[in-house]
Amino acid sequence: MATRLTTQDASFYFLEASSTPMHLGSLAILQVPEAGVDYEELLTHVERRLPLVPRYRQRVREVALGLARPVWVDDREFDITYHVRRSALPRPGSDAQLHDLVARLTSRPLDRTRPLWEMYLVEGLSDNRVAIFTKSHSALVGDEGSLEISQVLLDPSSTPRPTEEELWMPTREPREAELVLDAVAEMIARPREGAATLKMALGDLVGSAVEVAGNVAAVVRTATASAPTSPLNAAISRNRRFATVHTELEDYRRVRRRFGCTVNDAILAVLTGALRNWLLSRGEPVTAYSTVRALVPMAVYISGDGSEEEVDLEADPVEREHVPENAERKVSSFLVDLPVGEPNAVVRLSHIAHATEAHTRASSTVTAQTLVRMSGTAPATLHAMGLRVASSLSQRMFNVMISNVPGPQSPLYLNGARMLEMYPVSPLLKNQALSIGLTSYDGHVYYGLNADRDAMSDVEVVTALLYESLEELLDACG
């Protein structure tokens, strides 16, 4: 029998609108090896890894009259060349041209009649580089058992790990009558879920997702109900701008050692300084008490006694020795008011460190919305889970989502090509003009800023101010 979408998956599927496509993006910059990067070889590589992500060969089929949540069915006309595409920049392509291309691709919704993902091989980059840009719908990834495709394509060495060839045979697609009868039986057996499905059909997507998927009261308790008024919250179009920032992980570790905070605290302090100066550059009123409320995923682990503790996954391994090897890791989310009204970088950091520490102390009794439990790190999936909790909250509760996910600190390869940089591209929610994703990888911290083209036409100003804010904090280290 076909697998039904979960309540949250269905809410993402129906939540999508022309101005808010709900796909998560991932941009990888690769160094071209001597043998080059061949499109046909990439197709073969992707096809061999598809059995590890079987949902990437399934499409969504809706049930008549909205009687139940849609189901996943095998795409009997699956065409790998439709999903893995080839693009090129005029040589030598610049990073700015690549960002423009990513922004245009991010603006386009996925084809709902096919599996909900696309991948682009972008050739023509300067300095003998290529890019891989992947779009995966949020309904496709983010569950504890779901992975984003880039996670299974990458290998820890230049020699791809062997995979068994699999002859894929699509299963029979259920008839309409079968889906309707199954939906009616489910509504009788589980009337509460049936009511939630009807709410989705009537447009109450967020309410139904919260009602069935879980209680977010713990996240709500960490701040008052409404976020401060901010230009970060505005009506948005379907068009996007994309910008990146590339920094060194050691810089944040230096701040951590000097001030006794975490790498997460240092990153939030850098973002706070940049947002402060961005508001000033726009002539926005900034007082000593001005704040920007951010929704922030945080890595924690579950100790043997069931309590939670923040774990700085980007710390040096020797500084994480207190974390038990068998500890269960997860990511939770909380709201934090970033003190953009504070002119002193060290005081900003202190405020943020106290806020995150207070959240960690309270987490054993007031557990925040759990996003994912998994061993190891899986950046794309964790970013998707951050989006899930953000969408379940009213957009009036926060100004911006900042998703900071630790990645591997050793090089990864895609079919022999070394990955140099990796940038998350988080989607925008309604009335959210900016979404910030960060991933640490191989000694660096990579920021991906996805912004509305009209409401955030000056997103490049934010990127420049991020570098300045980091330098200000490093200067304070002496």
- CATH fold descriptor of the largest domain: Chloramphenicol Acetyltransferase
Straight-line distance between termini: 64 Å
Mind telling me the CATH superfamily name of the largest domain?
Nonribosomal peptide synthetase, condensation domain
Task: Tell me about the largest β-sheet.
Answer: 8 strands, mixed
Helix content: 25-40%
**How many strand segments?**
18
Structural class: alpha+beta
Figure out the total of helices.
14
Domain count: the total is 2
Rg (CA only): 22 Å
* Shape summary: globular
Point out poorly predicted stretches. Answer: 205-223, 313-327, 363-377
CATH level 1 name of the largest domain: Alpha Beta
CATH architecture of the largest domain: 2-Layer Sandwich
β content, as a range?
25-35%
pLDDT averaged over residues: 82
Q: Would you mind describing this structure in some detail?
A:
The longest helix has 19 residues, at 263-281. The chain has 478 residues and is α+β, with helices and mostly antiparallel strands. Helix 7 (191-202) packs antiparallel against helix 8 (205-213) and helix 11 (263-281) packs across helix 14 (459-476). It has 14 helices and 18 strands. It has helices at 7-15, 39-49, 80-83, 95-107, 149-153, 176-189, 191-202, 205-213, 217-221, 249-259, 263-281, 345-362, 379-391, 459-476, and strands spanning 3-4, 23-31, 58-61, 71-74, 84-93, 117-125, 129-137, 154-155, 240-248, 292-302, 308-310, 328-338, 370-373, 400-406, 413-414, 417-425, 434-441, 444-452. Strands 9, 10, 11, 12, 13, 14, 17 and 18 form an eight-stranded mixed sheet that branches. Helix content is 34%, strand content 26%. A hairpin with a 2-residue loop joins strand 17 (434-441) and strand 18 (444-452). The protein has two domains: 3-155, Chloramphenicol Acetyltransferase, CATH 3.30.559.10; 217-476, Nonribosomal peptide synthetase, condensation domain (Chloramphenicol Acetyltransferase). The chain is globular, with a radius of gyration of 22 Å. The model is unreliable at 205-223, 313-327 and 363-377 (pLDDT under 50). It starts with a strand and ends with a helix.
